[in-house]
Amino acid sequence: MLTRFWSMLKSFQIQDVFDIAIVAIMISAILIWFKDRASRFVLFGIGLLGLIYILARFFQLYLTTLVLQGFFAIFLFVIVVIFQEDFRRFFERLALLGSFKITLHEATPSNSSAEIIAHTADNLARRHIGALMVIAGNDPLDRHLTGGVKLDGLLSEQLLESIFDPHSKGHDGAVVIRENRIEQFGCHLPLTENIHPTRNFGLRHTAALGLSERCDAICVVVSEERGTVSLARSEKLITIKNAAELRNILEDFSARNAPAKPHRTFIYWLKEHPREKILALVFAFILWLSFGYQRDSVRRDFTVPIEYVNLAADSVLEGSKSTDAMVALTGPSQAFQLLNPEKLKISINLENIKQGRQEIKLTGEMITLPAGLSVSSIKPEHITISVSRFVVVEVPVEADVSPPPAGWTVHQITVNPSSARILVPEKMRSRRFHIKTETVSLLPTAESQIYKVNLIVPSDVRMEAGKTPEATVVVKLSKKTRISLQHPRKPFTEVSGNAAF
């Protein structure tokens, strides 16, 4: 056991440090996020199953690993259903993170606002007047609210009491307070699905707890039956003893959401939530031992395509060329999990290649690989290519025209352009080339017909740069006339340009 631990430490690399640190930060963020949420127990159960699965893999418990793998196959769908509200909150905060940095100090009530809310709630409770006040935090509230009337009025005790006056039409709804102002009133909140904490309370308490389950807002509830003040926050409903306690809670809420931005050092950050961070670090290290610890080296063979890059525009590879090679890679099995075999390729840079036939050695530097993998061998070790330079040759263009329709005869054929400049390999410059157009099918409809057709370029040549492989063919037809036997006359046809029938 000690020998195995020592060999593990010797294989520990700098990328493993970053790997464990990044995973630990992500795990600690999840633990801190779910710290005060009711769904943390579900997360704890999932984490326990994950720990059992990791231990089963580490100690090679085949049956346990097989059963848990079947469970985790449908685990993704289960976790989306269970934590869908948490995912929404996370992405909402992520999207609004930039705006929070700008308006963070104005997003929550000040100490004077906390005094107004606490004093108003105490007065309403003494008079047994029901009220529901929502103090917004950082999370957006729009998708949780229905109904309501926009107000945007300065927060005051008189305004709150007039809104919750039993004779007011909006007294049954909730008041939303944001940035020391009453944003709207008469709003309806979502109800909680957890009936146990609110079984002895009314609809206002059920709605307040329901909103606290979906965002970070605080809900202050005044019961008209009991004459008490309650507070819903982070999925919990508590009874407030007096106005001073409520004021302290609201001031603490304001301080947490709009701090004075003290200079925070790295040590200060480490001291925040130490239990969650230590647990995350331990769990990340266990994950590394199970999945990231690089044990024995393995070898795998791949058939890899060969690509030729950066060949000059005036050069061409002649003849047959190698298209693939057998590459043997070595490394830990974990490194192979990051490898996509379909993206493996040998890239041969022909930027400084010379003309003629030559041999190129295939090396591992020509292959891009993930960290931890290396090239053991390449077969073949060498390939032979032949490079030739293109030269410009001007060749005639011939029109390929079908026979004329019955009763018609071709009078004249014109091709524009009548010649084309093409690029041919230097050793083929003495060969006679000609380029034909696509076949033109004549119609018995007009004496003069114009066609725009493509040029058929042979496979071993190419058009000069910037030239379009097109030509215009003009065909002039004439109708055949009946000739008397007494005066036989041979028809005359004039053809200009190049034509092929």
Walkthrough of the structure:
With 501 residues, this protein is an alpha+beta fold. It folds into four domains: 127 residues, no CATH class; 153 residues, YojJ-like (1; 84 residues, Beta Complex (RNA Polymerase Alpha Subunit, Chain A, domain 2), CATH 2.170.120.30; 109 residues, RNA Polymerase Alpha Subunit, Chain A, domain 2 (Beta Complex). Helices cover 33% and strands 29% of the residues. It is built from 14 helices and 21 strands. Strands 9, 12, 14, 15, 16, 17, 18, 19, 20 and 21 form a ten-stranded mixed beta sheet that branches. Helix 3 runs antiparallel to helix 4. The protein starts with a helix and ends with a strand.
Q: How would the blueprint of this fold be written?
A:
Blueprint: H1 2-10, H2 14-33, H3 40-58, H4 62-73, H5 75-82, H6 84-95, H7 97-103, H8 111-126, E1 131-135, E2 146-154, H9 157-163, E3 174-178, E4 181-188, H10 203-212, E5 218-222, E6 229-233, E7 236-240, H11 243-257, H12 266-271, H13 274-292, E8 297-309, E9 315-318, E10 324-332, H14 333-336, E11 346-349, E12 356-361, E13 374-379, E14 382-400, E15 408-416, E16 419-425, E17 435-437, E18 448-456, E19 462-463, E20 470-479, E21 499-500
Parallel strand pairs: 1-3, 8-11, 14-17, 14-21
Antiparallel strand pairs: 1-5, 2-4, 3-4, 5-6, 6-7, 8-10, 9-14, 10-13, 12-14, 14-16, 15-20, 16-19, 17-18, 18-20
